[in-house]
Predict the structure.
Amino acid sequence: MWKISAKELEKLRDFLDIRGKKMLFYHRDCDGICSAAMWLRFFSDFEARPREGPRMDSGFVRHVIDQDPDLLVFLDLPIDQEWKRIRKMLDSLPDVRILIIDHHIVERDLNSGRILHINPKFKNDVYLPAAFLVYRILEQLGEDVGNMDWISALGIAGDYGFEDCRDFLDKVGIKNLDMGVGLVSAAMSLKGLKGADKVLKIMLASDGYKEFLRTKTLGLWKKYVDKEFRDVVSDFKKEREEHKDANLVIYIIKSRLNFVSVVATHFSEKLPDKVILIGKKGKYGWKLSVRNQSGKVNVGDLVKKCVKGIGSGGGHKKAAGGIVKDWEKFKRRLLAELEA
Ligand SMILES: [Mn+2]
């Protein structure tokens, strides 16, 4: 079973001894929220904020520097993609320590005297969601994690980590994890970052999985999102763009809801051999999600390549996302790559 090294554990303990201002940033998806919920159950003295992704604008960096934190924790966020901004933070905050617990494709090893960067991909090509990593790390710290196994399992399910976490999930033994994942992603789709924060608070207050599933607000939100989702599915049938040679299906979402990645996952399950590209025009550019459920095409690498100079993105082998300024250019590049 995966664990961190004795040296990493020692460094982590040193970080956790730090007094002062502590900030926690977590990815706003199911895996990220579950990771944050477990963390906060043991270390409640963190100010927690969801993040859309690893991208950091100068406003965010300034905000963090203004707060003058002593410890920063990033969960489920591949901020090694933003190493230049991290360097700026380190330069401006001479005492700050940074802990990163992540499982995305690594761009850069950020480990140094003041950064502890944990990612199982440094060692081997496993797919272990952050909610699994956080659970195991808390366990290694000697915390009593027993009654939180449902939160870990929920995060793993949210990120499709069934294969490499099979033993753990079998031990937890929850059959209807998809129901919880549905509630969490509906909150995100409808309410964005505020939804993530709300789910986190509910999770922190829930006594167990059954209680979590019975949350009224989440149930109502889910109903609303489900209806909107059905409309998207029927629109997909009419409006999708098929590129046979590239084995690619493209669809642009018109709904105002924030569910690009959920829709991408849905259709990638229906069409596992296809590469699926879902896009949506937003305030800051085109949000996009790419999937290939069969794993024949490494969409994490593919997206990283195609967004160069026009945006940012990346992710995992079977699932990736990003944001670009120029949709047509991204599409052309993607087609060229897939046809090659
Ligand atoms: Mn994740």
In short: The chain has a mean pLDDT of 96.
